[in-house]
Every structure is written in C-alpha cells, then in structure tokens.
C-alpha cells in the first residue's frame, strides 16, 4: 500500500489517467444508445416499451450497484475492482455488438452496466485518497470532464454514427477503447486505497436493490407517456422503493459496519452539498430532456441536429471544469456556486420564453451559457462536502453522492415531463376550443387540412408545456441558490472555516 503522505506529494497521475479513460467510456456509453433506439426497435421488431429497457435496465443495474460500491471499495483493492469492472464492461460491449436477438442485446447492456456502475465511485475515491484537501478542487475539476462531458456528447456522437452507419457501430467504436483501457490497467495499475475485512450484509443488498431500484424505475416510468403516475407498475414500485429505503436506513444505522453509511449526513457541509446536488440534478436535467423535445418535436429537426445544438455546451463544460477546480482551491465553493447559479437561472429564464421563431444559433448560445453556469456549481459543491468527511468515510460519501444523483435525476425527469404533459394537454384543449370558435362551421377543415391544424395546435401546446417546465426548473434553481447561501468553506483539517478561524 502506498504511503498517503508520499502520495500527496507526488499523486499517481498515470494511474488516475487509466481510471479516467475507463470511467469516461463507461459513462459515455450510458447515453450513447438513446438515439439508436428507433433503429433497434425496427431491426428486432419490438415495441417502444420493450426497447426502452435497454436504457431502463442499464439505469436500474447502476442504481442497485452504486450504493454497494462503498462496500466493494473498502473490501477489494482498487486494481482488482477496476480490472473486474472493465472486463465486465468490455465483455458486455462485445456481446452487444454481435447480438443476434433483442434478449441477448439486453443481457449485454446489463453486463455493461454491472461494470460501469463501479467506475465513477472508484475514480472519485482514488482521487480523494491521492490528493490532499487543498488540491482536490483541481483534481475533481478534471474529474468533472467524465461526469458532465461524457453524457453530454453521447447523443451528438451517436446521432452522427446512427445517421451514417449501423447502430452496432456504436459498440464497435467503444470496444477497442475499452480493451486498451483494460490492457493498460493490467500492466500499470497499482493499489492505493486502504482495505478493510468487512462482511457483506445480504439483507442490506436486497433492501438497497428494492429501494433504489424501485425509485429509479417508478420515477422513470412515471415520465413515460404510455404509463404515467396512475399506472400500477409506477405507484407500486414507488411504494416498495420508499418502504425499502426506510428499512435500509434503519438497518444501516444499527450496524457497526454498514454497507452504506447514512451517519455521514451528520457532517453539515456534506449534508448541505447533498441537498444542493439533489435539487440541481432535478433542475438541470431539464435542459437535457426539454431542449431535444423542443428542437425535434416542435421545430422538426433531426436527432443529430439536436445533439449538435448541445455540443458547444458540452465543450464549454469540458473546458471550464478544470478551471473551476482551480478557482475552487483558491476561493472555495460558495462564491463559485452563487455566480454559477445566477448565470444558470438567467439562461433558464430565456428558455421559459421559447417560441417558433428563435434561431438554432440563439438556442446554441443560450445553452452554452447555461452550461457555463452549471460548470461552476456541481463539482465545487460536491467537493466541498466530501472534504469534510474523514478519509475512511470517502467510499460512503462517493457512493451516496452518485446514488442521490441517479435518483434525483430520475425524479427531476419525471416531474418535468409530467408538468410538461399536463400543461400541453390543457393548452391543447384551450387552443382547440379557440380555433373552433373562429372557424365557420360550413368551412370546417377535413382530411389533410384538419390534420395540419391539429399538428399546429399540438406543437403550440407543447411549446407552452416546455416553457412552463423550464419555469418550474427556474424555481428549483432558486431553491438551490437559497441553500448555497449557507455554504461554508472546509479547511485542510476537515473543519468548517469560520470568520474567527480565518482571522
């Protein structure tokens, strides 16, 4: 095991780069398939509900395994974990590329997810171990490239590939990168994280799987137009999820060596950072969901064009993430977060005013500015919270953060899509009634003209729904701003820096 003080003097940049590549390709893969779902649906002759399991199943496996990552990171060496995770991911990618049936493709996606679920918490934990508190901002800023940019460029990259090649090309592109990352890991990866001989509590795994899996499936399905909140599969899984989470928390609080340590919420800055991250994940998913809906459904652009519109925002976040990390080391999280949320709030307001005339260039600029604001918030808030935890609690902190982001992202998506659908339906009724009043009964449109009028009404109604959803997103960002006012900087000793300490 590498000495911590020596490692802090000379962090293992080469090893972190290996983990970085592995995590990047694993997270990129999560959003890579979304654009290709219609093509897969056609080839295997499956319904939209069935094909959606390629993304839902991936998300559910992540939701089940990420909470268990705290146990895995403490029990096994970082080398063994990385090689196992990367082997599973590579194997799943190969099977997906050559899958002859939909069932085998789905199995391959689940194998991929089993590998990728551990990658993010593992990379975060290695970086927290490898860098002292005063340098973590820069390190975690670089880590932000994986967390933010990979999911953002996924739709653009997959849109271009699917438009020019077969959907299997998506997996053929990922496979060699995964193999190279695995091979480098075999020869270059060393162990730096401390291990403890803790035992796995099977009941905790079951409760965690039912709890987080139930919440993720329930909220994701609630946003599905074919199901909705009143569907038994939605509310029953949500009820099971909530009961299981409560049982999980009670069990973990009674255990000496819990699978997931909920007592870390006793640290005020970690608890605050978690609350802000949850609120932000709910609000910020709006851009990823609502903008493609507006561009493709209301304005009629292709998926690739929609992805291209979001690409400058992803590049801005990529460029800013390391810079934000350095600014965090110098100024702390509070100033960065308040400035970032202000920029995010103002640009979100512009998205509440969308119409049928706004140019794609204007949308691209507003989205890039919104991404600029977002880049100043997520990693500083998360890093400030993790800095307050003792080193032996880092695996639990990273597992908790990643789990909460998964769940809150699903909640935010379901909430915003529900709000959009509700507003769209009410606006469609109002617009239809108004249109009927202005039409002479003897000149009532029929055939193609009637369809054209209905399409125009639905597009305008959806536009109102999207604008209103962005308004709800703006309110959520306002809540995050209020919470950010209470952020305090954490010193190198893990204690909150008060005015008296600063003096």
TrEMBL record:
<feature type="domain" description="Major facilitator superfamily (MFS) profile">
    <location>
        <begin position="15"/>
        <end position="490"/>
    </location>
</feature>
<feature type="transmembrane region" description="Helical">
    <location>
        <begin position="270"/>
        <end position="295"/>
    </location>
</feature>
<dbReference type="InterPro" id="IPR011701">
    <property type="entry name" value="MFS"/>
</dbReference>
<dbReference type="Pfam" id="PF07690">
    <property type="entry name" value="MFS_1"/>
</dbReference>
<dbReference type="GO" id="GO:0022857">
    <property type="term" value="F:transmembrane transporter activity"/>
</dbReference>
<keyword id="KW-1003">Cell membrane</keyword>
<feature type="transmembrane region" description="Helical">
    <location>
        <begin position="301"/>
        <end position="319"/>
    </location>
</feature>
<protein>
    <submittedName>
        <fullName>Putative multidrug resistance protein EmrY</fullName>
    </submittedName>
</protein>
<feature type="transmembrane region" description="Helical">
    <location>
        <begin position="85"/>
        <end position="107"/>
    </location>
</feature>
<feature type="transmembrane region" description="Helical">
    <location>
        <begin position="358"/>
        <end position="382"/>
    </location>
</feature>
<dbReference type="InterPro" id="IPR020846">
    <property type="entry name" value="MFS_dom"/>
</dbReference>
<feature type="transmembrane region" description="Helical">
    <location>
        <begin position="143"/>
        <end position="163"/>
    </location>
</feature>
<feature type="transmembrane region" description="Helical">
    <location>
        <begin position="169"/>
        <end position="189"/>
    </location>
</feature>
<feature type="transmembrane region" description="Helical">
    <location>
        <begin position="53"/>
        <end position="73"/>
    </location>
</feature>
<keyword id="KW-0813">Transport</keyword>
<dbReference type="GO" id="GO:0005886">
    <property type="term" value="C:plasma membrane"/>
</dbReference>
<dbReference type="InterPro" id="IPR036259">
    <property type="entry name" value="MFS_trans_sf"/>
</dbReference>
<feature type="transmembrane region" description="Helical">
    <location>
        <begin position="113"/>
        <end position="131"/>
    </location>
</feature>
<feature type="transmembrane region" description="Helical">
    <location>
        <begin position="331"/>
        <end position="352"/>
    </location>
</feature>
<comment type="similarity">
    <text>Belongs to the major facilitator superfamily. EmrB family.</text>
</comment>
<feature type="transmembrane region" description="Helical">
    <location>
        <begin position="12"/>
        <end position="33"/>
    </location>
</feature>
<keyword id="KW-0812">Transmembrane</keyword>
<keyword id="KW-0472">Membrane</keyword>
<dbReference type="InterPro" id="IPR004638">
    <property type="entry name" value="EmrB-like"/>
</dbReference>
<feature type="transmembrane region" description="Helical">
    <location>
        <begin position="232"/>
        <end position="250"/>
    </location>
</feature>
<keyword id="KW-1133">Transmembrane helix</keyword>
<feature type="transmembrane region" description="Helical">
    <location>
        <begin position="201"/>
        <end position="220"/>
    </location>
</feature>
<feature type="transmembrane region" description="Helical">
    <location>
        <begin position="468"/>
        <end position="487"/>
    </location>
</feature>
């Amino acid at each position: 095991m590498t000495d911590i003080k020596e490692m802090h003097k000379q962090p293992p940049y080469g090893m972190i780069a290996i983990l970085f590549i592995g995590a990047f390709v694993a997270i990129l893969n999560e959003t890579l398939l979304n654009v290709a779902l219609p093509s897969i649906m056609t080839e295997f002759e499956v319904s939209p509900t069935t094909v959606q399991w390629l993304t839902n199943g991936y998300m559910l496996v992540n939701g089940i395994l990420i909470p268990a990552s705290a146990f895995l990171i403490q029990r096994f060496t970082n080398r063994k974990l990385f090689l196992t995770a990367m082997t599973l991911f590579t194997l799943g990618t190969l099977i997906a590329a050559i899958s002859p049936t939909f069932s085998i493709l789905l199995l391959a996606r689940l194998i991929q997810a089993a590998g990728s679920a551990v990658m993010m918490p593992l990379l975060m934990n290695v970086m927290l171990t490898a860098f002292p508190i005063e340098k973590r901002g820069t390190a975690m800023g670089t880590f932000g490239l994986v967390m933010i940019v990979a999911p953002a460029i996924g739709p653009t990259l997959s849109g271009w590939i699917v438009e020019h090649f077969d959907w299997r090309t998506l997996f053929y592109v990922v496979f060699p990168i995964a193999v190279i990352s695995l091979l480098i890991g075999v020869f270059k990866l060393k162990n730096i994280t401390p291990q403890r001989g803790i035992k796995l509590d099977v009941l905790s795994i079951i409760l965690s799987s039912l709890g987080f899996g139930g919440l993720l499936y329930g909220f994701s399905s609630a946003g599905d137009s074919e199901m909705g909140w009143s569907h038994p599969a939605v509310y029953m899984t949500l009820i099971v999820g909530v009961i299981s989470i409560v049982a999980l928390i009670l069990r973990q609080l009674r255990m000496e060596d819990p699978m997931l340590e909920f007592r870390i919420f006793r640290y005020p800055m970690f608890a605050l950072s978690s609350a802000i991250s949850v609120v932000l994940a709910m609000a910020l998913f709006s851009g990823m969901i609502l903008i493609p809906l507006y561009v493709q459904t209301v304005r009629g652009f292709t998926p690739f064009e929609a992805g291209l519109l979001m690409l400058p925002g992803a590049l801005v976040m990529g460029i800013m993430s390391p810079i934000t990390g350095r600014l965090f080391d110098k100024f702390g999280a509070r100033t960065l977060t308040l400035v970032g949320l202000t920029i995010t709030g103002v640009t979100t307001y512009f998205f509440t005013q969308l119409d049928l005339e706004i140019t794609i260039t204007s949308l691209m600029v507003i989205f890039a500015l919104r991404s600029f604001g977002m880049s100043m918030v997520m990693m500083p808030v998360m890093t400030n919270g993790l800095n307050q935890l003792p080193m032996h609690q880092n695996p639990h902190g990273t597992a908790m953060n990643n789990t909460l982001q998964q769940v809150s992202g699903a909640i935010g998506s379901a909430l915003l899509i529900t709000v959009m659908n509700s507003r769209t339906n009410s606006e469609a009724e109002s617009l239809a009634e108004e249109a009927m009043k202005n039409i002479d009964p003897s000149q009532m449109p029929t055939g193609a003209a009637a369809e054209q009028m209905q399409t125009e009404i639905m597009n305008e109604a959806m536009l109102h729904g999207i604008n209103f959803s962005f308004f709800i997103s703006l309110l959520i960002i306002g809540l995050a701003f209020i919470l950010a006012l209470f952020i305090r900087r954490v010193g190198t000793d893990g204690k909150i820096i008060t005015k008296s300490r600063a003096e």
